[in-house]
Specification:
single chain, alpha/beta, Elongation Factor Tu (Ef-tu), domain 3, Rossmann fold, 6-stranded parallel sheet, 31% strand
Length: 264
Amino acid sequence: MALSPDKFYTARVSYRRDVAPDLWVLRLAPGGEYNFVAGQYATLGVPLSGDFIERPYTIVSSPYENEIELFLERVPHGELTPSLYSLQVGGEVSLLKIAKGRFTLDLKSGHPNHLLLCTVTGVAPFVSYIRTLYADWKQNRFPAEIRLHLIQGASRSREFGYREELESIAADVPWFTYVPTVSRPWEDAAWRGEKGRVDDIIRKYADQWKLTAAGTTAYLCGHPRMVTNGMEILERAGFAKASIRKEAYWAPDGARANSETPRR
């Protein structure tokens, strides 16, 4: 199937890292100039059975990077992710030239605090925020008076695809805090960190970090149940709807973020 070169690049896989069964990281050389803002998504496509299947996937990489990094979950009976899962270094995929999405960091409200809540691959936009701010911080371009607080949930610790990177940045800067939490600790005997679902511990850490509704923007990304429960918790705590941003990944059978079904 011929695609318009005016609208699509042919992106090439330059790197692959398997995180856990059905979870993996791909890095793509886009094949041309590709501009985006941290928090936006790329649209990938492949020809299948005479049709062309496209899906949006949130970008992990910073706009300062030359390649597009994605954190993905394979849905066994999905239309696109099994094909993406089979890609190895050198493989190709179609890439819409224009990035889209409005799940970007709120720097207009003047809020000093940003509470980032996610499940598994829902961490993707937050890694993009943090990489971008970390690069700015090292170049003395960091926005004044903002702090980011990230809580990431997963069933087991092996699903934290960026834990080492995030812990390293948190140890190096005064403006970022990271808490990974495991909801099935009985399946992860070596885990010594926080336990429970994200929505179980929101109030605990919001209180600990002294986050107020008046001075905080909240972002929720990932499993729709976490997003719904988290929004209700924040609204009961006095957060205005304008201060809550969400990116629910609606997928079959509760599949995780950056999986098969379009989100918008």
